[in-house]
C-alpha cells in the first residue's frame, strides 16, 4: 500500500509541469486581468492616502517628532516666529509646520503677573475740530473713576491722555515707553478721519514705515498688553466704509495690529458723529473695561473676546498691505476718477506750456528728487479746518497751497512807527515788503510754530501743484487788498501808503517751507523780473532742492539747535535722517557762499536751545561759513497752540540774554579762528547781526544790500557774488551798541507787551 501510494505521487509529481502549463493556457486571460485590476486598485489607494495626508499637513499644525519648536498661530500664514523671536519668512518647498499649538499672542498675558504688575492705559487721540479731543478726555477720566471702583484698584494705573500731534511718535510707536518696572501698557486710540492732509496722515505713514523698517522688528509693539481703536466719522458725507467712512481709524487699527503682533484687545469701534456715536462709544468702552478686567486676572486679552481675531484675519491684513501701494485715496462720494484726471491736466499751465502736476519725493537725497504719483488733492482745501484757521488769523490763501499775510511791521511802518530789523540790517522798508509762502506745508513740527495740529505736514509733496503765475498774481493781489484795507487806520501816513502800492521786497518766510514748492525757481524769476528782491528762509531739510535753487537776494537756513538731540526736540522733524539732511544743507550753503548772500538764522528759545550751546553753534558756523548770522529771540504768539507745545513767555529770552549768548558765540568763533564780528542790532525786536569780515570794508560794516545792483547783476546773465551787490555802509544808528532804531521813526511800545519779541 505504501509502495502504491509512493508510486502514485511520483507519477503526479512528474506530470505536474505539464498540468500547470495546461491550466495556465486554459485560465491565463482571467488571471492577467484580475492581477492588473488588483495592482491598479492598490496604486490608486496609495495615491489617495498620500494626497489626504498632504491636505491634512497643510491645514493643521501637527505634533511632530522633529522637535519642540512652536508655531504662533497668531502670525500670518506666511510668517512664523523663530527661536530668537524674530519673524522668519517661509522657505520655499512644501510647508511643514512643527511644534505644539500655543495660545494666540492676543490671548496670552504678555508676561503680566497680577500679583506684581500694573496696567498703564494710555489714551491717544488726534483732533482738529476738538470733538475727538473732548471725548478722549472724557474717556480717560471715566476709566480712572471706573478703576477706582474695582476690588483691586491698584493694578490699573491712572490713564494718561496723549495728543498724537504733540508726542514724539518714536517714544510710543517704535517701542513701548520704558516706564516704571513691572508696568505694562495698554493703548487706546481715538481718531477722526479727514480726507485732507492732517498730522494723522503722517502718523499713519510712520506706523507703516516702522513696520517695514528692516532695522526694526516687524512687530516692535508686541510687548503691549493690547490696543484698540475708535474712529469718528461722518456718514452724511462718507456713507459707507468703502466710501471712506472712518477710513483712517481703520488704517490705524490695521497698522497697530501688525506692530503689536495682533494684540487687538477689542474690535475697531466706529461712530457716526451725526447719529450713533454715543451708543457705539459706550459699547466700545464697556468692552474695553471687560478686557482690562481679564488682563487684571491674568487671563491676557481673554479667550473669545470679540475681535481677538480669527485665523483668516491676518491674511486679510496682509492682502490689504499688498494692495496699499496701488490704493487710490478714498474720495467723497460722487466724485469720479475722470474728474481727477482732468484736474491733473489743468493743474499747471504756466507760461503757455501744459505739464502735469509734479509730486516730488523729498524723502531721499543724493540724486535728483524723484517724481512720484500724480495727485489732484489740495493741500489746503477751502472746506478744511486749516483754511478756516489761517483765514481767521488774517492769511489770504492763494490757490490751494500758498498764503500771504501783512506782518505787524508793515502796519507799523505805514504808521511811521518803525520797520523790522531787516530795515536796520539790510535796508528793507517794511511797508514795501510782502510776506508770503508758496507752500504752507512743512516737514518739521517746530515747538514755536503756532499752527500745531492744523498745518499740513509731510516729507513728500502729495498735493496738486498750482502754477507759479497763479501764485504770483494771487499773492500780490492779496497783499495789495490788505494794504488798501489799512487806508482808514489812524496814523497811516499818506506818502508811505502810496509807496506801499509797489511791492519791492518779498520775504519767503511766512510759514511752511518755500522750497517744498516744486516750481520755486519759476516763482523767484517772476519776482525778480518785477524787481522784487527775494529773502528765502528754508528749514535745512531738503538738500537736493536747496542745491537746485537759483539765485535769491539773500538765502537763509534756520539753525534752530546746535546738535542732533536738541534739533530733534525743538524742530521735531519728520525725516528720520533729519540730522544728515541738516548737515548736508550746511555744506551746500558753504558751496554757495561766493554766489549768494547766505545767512544762518538762529532763533533762541530759552530752556531749549541757548544754554551751553554756543560752542556747538560755532562748529556749525565753521561748517557752513555763512556771510551773516542773525540771532533773534523767539516770538511768543500767545495762542493756546503754542502753549500746548509747552511754550510760555518764560521761553522768550530777554534782550540781555540774547546779547550774552552773542558774546559767547563770538568768543567761540574767535577760538576757531573764524573771522566774524557783531555788526548791527535791533533791540526793539530782540535781534543781533553778526557778519563775516568780508563785509567790513575799509573798517566799516556794509550789511545793507544794493538792490538795484543785484537786479543788474542778475539781468547781465554773468556770474556774480555777494560782494557785487553790497549797499551803503550800515547806518550809524543800526550799528552794534546804538539800538538799531531809525531816529526818524516814532518809537512805540504796545501796552502790557514785552517790547523785545520779534517777527519776520
Ligand atoms: C474736511 C473734512 C474732511 C472729512 N473727511 C472725512 C472722511 O473722509 N471720512 C469720514 O468718515 N469723516 C470725515 N470727516 C468728518 C470728521 O471725521 C468728523 O467731523 C470728526 O468728528 C472730526 O473730529 P474732530 O473735530 O475731533 O477732529 C471730515 C470732516 C472734515 C471737516
Ligand atoms: S518750519 Fe516754520 S512752518 Fe514749519 S513747523 Fe517750523 S515754524 Fe512751523
UniProtKB/TrEMBL annotation:
Annotated keywords: 4Fe-4S, Iron, Iron-sulfur, Lyase, Metal-binding, Nucleotide-binding, S-adenosyl-L-methionine, tRNA processing
Needed co-factor(s): [4Fe-4S] cluster
Class in the EC hierarchy, top level: lyase
Catalytic activity: N(1)-methylguanosine(37) in tRNA(Phe) + pyruvate + S-adenosyl-L-methionine = 4-demethylwyosine(37) in tRNA(Phe) + 5'-deoxyadenosine + L-methionine + CO2 + H2O
Extent of Acidic residues compositional bias: 310-323
Domain Flavodoxin-like: 121-289
EC number: 4.1.3.44
Region (Disordered): 59-96, 298-350
Biological or metabolic pathway of the protein: tRNA modification; wybutosine-tRNA(Phe) biosynthesis
An annotated GO BP: wybutosine biosynthetic process
UniProt-listed SUPFAM superfamilies: Flavoproteins, Radical SAM enzymes
Keyword tRNA processing: yes
Keyword Heme appears in the UniProt entry: no
Database matches in InterPro entries: Aldolase_TIM (IPR013785), Flavodoxin/NO_synth (IPR008254), Flavoprotein-like_sf (IPR029039), rSAM (IPR007197), rSAM_sf (IPR058240), tRNA_wybutosine-synth (IPR013917), tRNA_wybutosine-synthase (IPR034556)
Pfam families named among the record's database cross-references: Flavodoxin_1 (PF00258), Radical_SAM (PF04055), Wyosine_form (PF08608)
GO MF term set: 4 iron, 4 sulfur cluster binding; FMN binding; metal ion binding; tRNA-4-demethylwyosine synthase activity
Domain spans labelled Radical SAM core: 426-675
Membership in a protein family: Belongs to the TYW1 family.
PANTHER family xref list: S-ADENOSYL-L-METHIONINE-DEPENDENT TRNA 4-DEMETHYLWYOSINE SYNTHASE (PTHR13930), S-ADENOSYL-L-METHIONINE-DEPENDENT TRNA 4-DEMETHYLWYOSINE SYNTHASE TYW1-RELATED (PTHR13930:SF0)
Name this protein carries in UniProt: S-adenosyl-L-methionine-dependent tRNA 4-demethylwyosine synthase
Lineage of origin: Eukaryota, Fungi, Dikarya, Ascomycota, Pezizomycotina
Amino acid at each position: 500500500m505504501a509502495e502504491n501510494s509512493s508510486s502514485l505521487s511520483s507519477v503526479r509529481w512528474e506530470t505536474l509541469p505539464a498540468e500547470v502549463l495546461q491550466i495556465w493556457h486554459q485560465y491565463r486571460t482571467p488571471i492577467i486581468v484580475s492581477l492588473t485590476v488588483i495592482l491598479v486598485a492598490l496604486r490608486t489607494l496609495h495615491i489617495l492616502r498620500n494626497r489626504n495626508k498632504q491636505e491634512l499637513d497643510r491645514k493643521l499644525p501637527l505634533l511632530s517628532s522633529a522637535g519642540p519648536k512652536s508655531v504662533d498661530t497668531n502670525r500670518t500664514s506666511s510668517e512664523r516666529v523663530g527661536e530668537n523671536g524674530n519673524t522668519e519668512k517661509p522657505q520655499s518647498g512644501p510647508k511643514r509646520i512643527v511644534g505644539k499649538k500655543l495660545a494666540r499672542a492676543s490671548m496670552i498675558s504678555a508676561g503680566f503677573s497680577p500679583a506684581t504688575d500694573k496696567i498703564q492705559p494710555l489714551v491717544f487721540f488726534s483732533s482738529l475740530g476738538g470733538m475727538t479731543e473732548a471725548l478722549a478726555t472724557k474717556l480717560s477720566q471715566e476709566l480712572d473713576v471706573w478703576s477706582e471702583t474695582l476690588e483691586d484698584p491698584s493694578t490699573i494705573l491712572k490713564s494718561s491722555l496723549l495728543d498724537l500731534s504733540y508726542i514724539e511718535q518714536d517714544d510710543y510707536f517704535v517701542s513701548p515707553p520704558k516706564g516704571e518696572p513691572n508696568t505694562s501698557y495698554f493703548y487706546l486710540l481715538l481718531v477722526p478721519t479727514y480726507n485732507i492732509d492732517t498730522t494723522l496722515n503722517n502718523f499713519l505713514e510712520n506706523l507703516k514705515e516702522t513696520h517695514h523698517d528692516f532695522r526694526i522688528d516687524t512687530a516692535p509693539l508686541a510687548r503691549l498688553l493690547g490696543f484698540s481703536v475708535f474712529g469718528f466719522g461722518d456718514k452724511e458725507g462718507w456713507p459707507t466704509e468703502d466710501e471712506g467712512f472712518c477710513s483712517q481709524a481703520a488704517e490705524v487699527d490695521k497698522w497697530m495690529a501688525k506692530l503689536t503682533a495682533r494684540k487687538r484687545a477689542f474690535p475697531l469701534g466706529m461712530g457716526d458723529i451725526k447719529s450713533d456715536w454715543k451708543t457705539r462709544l459706550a459699547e466700545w468702552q464697556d468692552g474695553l473695561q471687560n478686557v482690562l478686567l481679564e488682563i487684571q486676572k491674568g487671563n491676557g486679552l481673554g479667550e473669545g473676546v470679540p475681535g481677538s481675531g480669527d485665523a483668516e484675519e491676518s491674511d486679510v491684513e496682509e492682502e490689504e498691505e499688498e494692495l496699499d501701494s496701488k490704493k487710490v485715496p478714498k474720495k467723497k462720494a460722487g466724485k469720479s476718477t475722470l474728474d481727477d484726471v482732468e484736474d491733473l491736466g489743468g493743474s499747471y499751465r504756466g507760461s503757455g506750456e501744459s505739464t502735469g502736476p509734479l509730486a516730488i519725493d523729498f524723502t531721499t537725497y543724493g540724486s535728483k528728487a524723484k517724481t512720484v504719483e500724480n495727485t489732484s488733492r489740495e493741500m489746503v482745501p477751502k472746506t478744511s479746518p486749516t483754511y478756516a484757521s489761517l483765514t481767521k488769523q488774517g492769511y489770504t490763501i492763494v490757490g490751494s497751497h500758498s498764503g500771504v499775510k501783512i506782518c505787524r511791521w508793515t502796519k507799523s511802518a505805514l504808521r511811521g512807527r518803525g520797520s523790522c530789523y531787516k530795515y536796520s540790517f539790510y535796508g528793507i522798508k517794511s511797508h514795501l515788503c510782502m510776506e508770503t509762502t508758496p507752500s504752507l506745508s512743512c516737514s518739521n513740527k517746530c515747538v514755536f510754530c503756532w499752527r500745531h495740529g492744523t498745518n499740513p505736514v509731510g516729507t513728500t509733496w502729495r498735493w496738486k501743484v498750482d502754477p507759479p503765475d497763479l501764485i504770483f498774481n494771487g499773492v500780490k493781489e492779496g497783499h495789495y487788498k490788505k494794504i488798501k484795507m489799512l487806508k482808514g487806520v489812524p496814523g497811516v501816513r499818506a506818502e508811505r501808503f502810496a509807496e506801499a502800492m509797489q511791492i519791492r521786497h518779498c520775504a519767503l518766510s511766512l510759514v511752511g517751507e518755500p522750497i517744498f514748492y516744486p516750481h520755486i525757481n519759476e516763482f523767484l524769476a517772476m519776482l525778480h523780473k518785477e524787481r522784487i528782491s527775494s529773502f528765502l528762509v528754508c528749514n535745512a531739510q531738503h538738500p537736493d532742492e536747496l542745491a537746485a535753487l537759483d539765485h535769491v537776494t539773500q538765502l537763509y537756513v534756520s539753525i534752530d539747535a546746535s546738535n542732533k538731540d536738541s534739533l530733534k526736540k525743538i524742530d521735531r522733524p519728520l525725516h528720520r535722517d533729519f540730522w544728515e539732511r541738516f548737515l548736508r544743507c550746511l555744506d551746500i550753503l558753504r558751496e554757495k557762499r561766493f554766489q549768494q548772500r547766505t545767512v544762518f538764522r538762529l532763533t533762541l528759545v530759552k530752556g531749549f536751545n541757548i544754554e551751553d550751546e554756543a560752542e556747538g553753534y560755532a562748529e556749525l558756523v565753521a561748517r557752513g561759513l555763512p556771510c551773516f548770522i542773525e540771532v533773534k529771540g523767539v516770538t511768543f504768539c500767545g495762542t493756546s497752540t503754542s502753549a500746548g507745545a509747552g511754550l510760555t513767555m518764560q521761553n522768550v529770552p530777554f534782550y540781555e540774554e540774547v546779547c550774552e549768548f552773542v558774546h559767547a558765540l563770538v568768543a567761540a568763533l574767535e577760538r576757531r579762528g573764524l573771522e566774524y564780528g557783531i555788526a548791527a542790532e535791533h533791540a526793539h525786536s530782540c535781534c543781533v547781526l553778526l557778519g563775516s569780515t568780508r563785509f567790513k570794508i575799509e573798517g566799516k560794516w556794509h550789511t545793507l544790500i544794493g538792490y538795484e545792483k543785484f537786479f543788474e547783476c542778475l539781468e547781465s546773465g554773468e556770474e556774480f557774488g555777494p560782494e557785487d551787490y553790497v549797499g551803503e555802509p550800515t547806518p550809524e544808528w543800526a550799528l552794534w551798541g546804538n539800538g538799531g532804531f531809525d531816529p526818524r521813526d516814532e518809537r512805540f511800545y504796545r501796552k502790557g507787551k514785552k517790547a523785545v519779541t520779534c517777527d519776520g
